[in-house]
Amino acid sequence: MRPPRTVVTFVLAMTVALGVTFVVPLASSTPTSSAAEAALRKSVTSDYTLLRRAPASYVIGTAYRGWTVDIQGPAESGYRWGRIFGDLNACLWIYAGAVAGSGSANESCQDAATMPTSAFTNGVISPGADDGSSIAVVAGPGCATYDGAHLIGYGNVRPWLVPARASSPIPTSLVYGSTVRWRYVSRDGAFVMVRDPASGSTDGRGLQSWFFLPRGCFP
Predict the structure, then answer these.
(1) How far is CA 70 from the centre of its chain?
(2) Per DSSP, what are the bridge partners of residue 210?
(3) In whole angstroms, what is the distance from residue 92 CA to residue 52 CA?
(4) Sign of CA dihedral 101, 86, 23, 77
(5) 137-190 tens-digit pLDDT
(6) pLDDT given at position 163
(7) Does the pTM of the predicted model rise above 0.70?
């Protein structure tokens, strides 16, 4: 299911307004040999899909419909390792069922790896369940709405960077006072990964449930 035209328009408008800057790949995401081996070029086929630091582990970003993904290596627990293009251009884990295609490409990532939590958090991680601990959203620095009521979230902030760089703005169902589940704080301390229970738990359709909010949106 493609996102409503209003959502697409919103995302494009916000991207321009925020002056999004595409970033270079992670320093560790380079080929391990001078002669790159073959990879499979695929593209994202769902409205969005969550990106992980390891198979079925922490969410650290999002890829969207039509984004190019160069897959390398075998599947692990339903996930594939590869370079995610779009506005990320980084090597991460992506759900295998969210990509399709069999074009050829050169490997541009090192061997599959797990990103340590110290690489994408400042050490502040929710002590609660896997989906985080409950907290209410407040009006604070950097916390903004797209329609005067509902908050702007971000599909990507590159939490491993200092400073982090927000992109892929998305509409959320949150208003000030809404309760979310917070998971961790980005390495630079400026963003928080959250889950919006009101958006459900699906990955790929409808409102995105996992995303980043500015640290100022919380007490």
Answers:
(1) 17
(2) 195
(3) 6
(4) negative
(5) 999 999 999 999 999 999 999 999 999 999 999 999 999 999 999 999 999 999
(6) 98
(7) yes
Strand partners, 49: 63
Specify the 3-state DSSP secondary structure of 217. helix
Are residues 107 and 38 in contact, defined by beta-carbon separation less than 8 angstroms? yes
In contact, 115 and 187? CB cutoff 8 Å? no
| Residue 145 Rama label (left phi>0; alpha psi -120 to 50; beta) | beta
Q: Residue 54 forms beta bridges with which residues?
A: none
Q: 């090192």: which residue's tokens? A: 110
Q: Could you give the dihedral angle defined by the CA atoms of residues 168, 173, 179 and 180, in that order, rounded to the nearest 10 degrees?
A: -30
What domains lie within the chain, and their CATH numbers?
38-106 (2.30.30.40), 117-217 (no CATH)
Q: How far apart are CA 154 and CA 48, in angstroms?
A: 12
